[in-house]
Fold:
Amino acid sequence: MNVEDVRSVPGTWSKEQLLAAGIKLKESFDPPFDRHYDYRIIYEVWLEPSTLDKAFINFAVTDTGHVAVGIETYERLLERTALKAIRRGFAAGQEPTRWNKEGLQILFDAVCQGRIFLVVNALLGIITSVKFYMYQSDCYAIARTGYEPKWIWEIPDSERIPSVRFGKTISYHPW
Structure:
């Protein structure tokens, strides 16, 4: 994918709509090179809600056209759950891989519509894992675009929230 393809995904929202929804859009066309990575990011966009009950999302495009996705941050999860974490950065997501515009749009729309969940597991008040859930119909729609959403856990559309034995389920409101 190229930068313009990725920019068009959140581009379905005008700046006025984002502001009215309390979403701060930040873009970087030349992020600093991180020597710890074996790829170079050439464009990055962050969409950060002003409230914790709406999900954060990030897209980053590499010089090879791969796209990384970050959903929610540990920092925001810690604020919301009062847990602690050793990790930093994104709570869920995918390192750079091949995506297409249609698949990214489906994921973005699910985030905007609050059709996602995180299940946070903790031990002694410290987060040990975070799993990202989407409704089955959204997962199937993404898979039909050719992307394999291996990091996304499915829940039946008929369930209001994931039924899990352990962990705290974090739900999100639409933007």
Summary: The mean pLDDT is 93. The radius of gyration is 16 Å. The first strand starts at residue 23 and ends at 28.
